[in-house]
Amino acid sequence: MGYMLLYESMFASVICARDRWLKPGGLMLPAYATLYMAPITNSEKYTESIDFWRNVYGIDMSAMLPLAKQTSFEDPCIEMITGENVLSWPVVVKHIDCSKVTIGELETVHSEFCVSSMMMASLHGFALWFDVSFGPRIITTEATDALFESSSMENNIVGDDDAETTLGRLRVSRKRTSAEECVILSTAPEDPPTHWAQTILYVYDPITVTQDQLIYGSITLSQSRENPRFLNIHLEYTSGDRHCVKESVMR
User: I want to staple 95 with a disulfide (CB 3.0 to 4.6 A). Which of 136, 148, 187, 245 is the partner?
Assistant: First the structure.
């Protein structure tokens, strides 16, 4: 598992080994993996990397701002944030059944999203993280089955009036299995830090969002033709009267 779950395309090697050598009834560990995404605010990071140039020991060096934004935020950042940075409930970008997924299925992953900001803040970017489960298939409620297994925007939303109820069921269901306890490894911002941290896609120009303001768009993760270990990222998002597109490569 690489950063953001899919980086370096390491799943392909495991899938190849599974198809060639796993006996009927054999186990895949982890058994399931889920990639999540949510908008974030991080004023401290933006101040440190960008606003610094507005006043460098009394000297206005704002002419450096375009270059500072490009060098700081062009590529995805691997860093740790906390739950306080997250602006909305997360959306599921991809749910993977490790015993059935194919190499082709992971070459391009596309997901649409629509979330509602839980507070008034500056939208500085989007965070991606994942969790994996070791054990039998997780028992889920009808609501979480729809969340995991549907690729439509309607069912990918975890930000409506019933969001708290749905996510509460999700957390409970992730702890129950059909036969025995299921172990979860999570790289979420609210969980203990891991080697994977979170992957942050910072935007060049933050926008201010109000409480309950919608943020919607799509994200596409595709294997690079230049190097199969690289990941091309295409992000589109709209909020209020702002529509932005950001493309980057995770090298």
Answer: 148
Beta bridge partners of 114: 216
Each residue's pLDDT tens digit, 229-238 = 999 999 999 9
Instruction: Give CA–CA dist 165/13, Å, rounded.
Output: 38
Give residue 111's Cα distance to chain centre. 11
DSSP state of 158: -
For residue 11, which phi and psi values (nearest 5 degrees)? -60, -35
Structure-derived torsion over alpha carbons of residues 32, 90, 194, 42, reported in degrees to the nearest 10: 160
Q: What's the token pair of residue 236?
A: 């589109």
**Which of 210, 220, 62 lies closest to 126 in space, CA to CA?**
220
Give me the phi and psi of 232, to 5 degrees please. Answer: -85, 135
| Residue found by looking up tokens 């054990």 in the block | 135
Give the rounded percent of residues in the chain with a pLDDT score beyond 70. 82
Look up residue 186 and give its two tokens: 């999570």
pLDDT at res. 109: 97
CA atoms within 13 A on the CB side of 186: 12
Which comes out higher in pLDDT, residue 102 or 171? 102
Q: Which of the 8 DSSP states describes residue 5?
A: B
Q: What is the DSSP letter of 177?
A: B
Strand bridging mode 231-239 / 242-250: antiparallel
